[in-house]
Write a structure and sequence with these properties.
By secondary structure, the chain is an alpha/beta fold. 36% of the residues lie in helices and 18% in strands. The chain is globular.
């Protein structure tokens, strides 16, 4: 399974963005009105586009929105545009944003509200997506007849009655490669390996890295779902370089934790509870944390942080993840993700990343 694409519709107020969003979605996802500024916040809808697959269509507020509140709406639109796989620009673009759209020219489609040709737009979207680099979560790592052990803890943070998306993505990828997926809880791994030592790879949830690494022999490649997502969606190399910054933390530093999706945190939440506790214990420093979900802004300028940690990003597109991380890198802040950070602090970073590197 490859990550779904994100199609962002952008332009001035009353340019016809919402009309186009409804046409592409084949249903009313946005209110259409002649009143400028009808769309105030990004409106999203996952749809199946012909010849493309699952996509997320995002209708945005006008880039020329005015006033203090309008500036915030326009800023939210800009964040969506930066994280888009495809941008559909409806009508003229304000001069002050021309540099941004020029940098995105290879993934921008320009249309006029005088007549939206749905089939032509679909064809242009497919052409852009066919040019992008995209790979499945286990691409190049799993082969026919391999046996891949997937370790899936089921604690209070796990969704009731289902597996989390990275686990589902991995199972599907194993099946697509005519291999065998063995799905286990952490406490079943040791017993299983005793009966079937001929395992090609073990993929675990990052939060149980320590216990799983202790029972998996060194000759069996070991990694995590979070690391596989970093490899398939990026930016893997930037995470490799940024992770050692954990050893340079000082008292009073703040860490920004980016979550791709919004969810209710529990006492076993990996991003809001377990990772902060592990970092404080490992570093011995008094470190503060800020948490940002979805595409929201950080509460402080990015340059104020000593480290940015991104979740695996299973529900985000590659473009979204790269946009968020590039902002941190431009601010001179090292970046890592959940799996790499936990592996570093568990002392198995090199072991868990070597099989993923070219």
């Amino acid at each position: 399974m490859k990550d779904n694409c994100r199609i962002v519709i952008a332009g001035l107020r009353n340019a016809g963005k919402s009309t186009l969003a409804n046409i592409l979605a084949g249903q009313e996802i946005s209110i259409v009105s002649p009143v400028p500024g009808t769309t105030t916040d990004p409106v999203t809808r996952r749809v199946e586009l012909p010849g493309t697959g699952i996509c997320t269509i995002v209708d945005t507020a006008g880039l020329d929105d005015e006033g203090p509140l309008g500036d915030k709406r326009a800023a939210a639109s800009i964040r969506e545009i930066k994280g888009a796989d495809v941008v559909i620009a409806v009508g003229p673009i304000p001069e002050k944003h021309s540099k941004l759209f020029l940098s995105l020219s290879e993934r921008t489609i320009s249309v006029s509200r005088d007549g939206f040709d749905k089939e032509s737009i679909f064809a242009a979207v497919r052409a852009i997506l066919n040019r992008r680099e995209s790979r499945t979560i286990l691409q190049g790592l799993v082969h026919p007849s391999d046996r891949i052990v997937l370790v899936c803890p089921q604690d209070s943070a796990a969704p009731k009655g289902r597996l989390i998306l990275p686990q589902v993505m991995a199972i599907r990828d194993v099946l697509d490669h005519d291999a065998t997926a063995v799905v286990l809880k952490p406490d079943r791994v040791a017993d299983y390996l005793e009966t079937d030592p001929d395992i090609s790879m073990v993929v675990t949830d990052s939060q149980v890295f320590a216990s799983v690494a202790a029972v998996v022999p060194e000759n069996i490649p070991l990694t995590s779902f979070s690391m596989l997502l970093a490899r398939s969606k990026g930016p893997f190399n930037e995470y490799l370089e940024g992770t050692p910054a954990i050893d340079r933390l000082k008292d009073g530093d703040r860490i920004l934790i980016l979550e791709a999706c919004a969810h209710h945190a529990t006492c076993e939440d990996i991003g809001r509870v377990k990772i902060p506790a592990l970092i404080r214990r490992y570093s011995g420093k008094t470190v503060g944390f800020d948490f940002v979900s979805g595409n929201s802004e950080a509460p402080m300028p990015l340059c104020s942080y000593a480290l940015v940690l991104q979740c695996g990003g299973c529900v985000a597109s590659s473009a979204q993840l790269r946009a968020r991380i590039s902002d941190a890198l431009e601010a001179g802040v090292p970046v890592s993700n959940y799996g790499m950070a936990i592996a570093w602090m568990t002392g198995i970073f090199e072991r868990c990343t070597k099989s993923l590197q070219p």
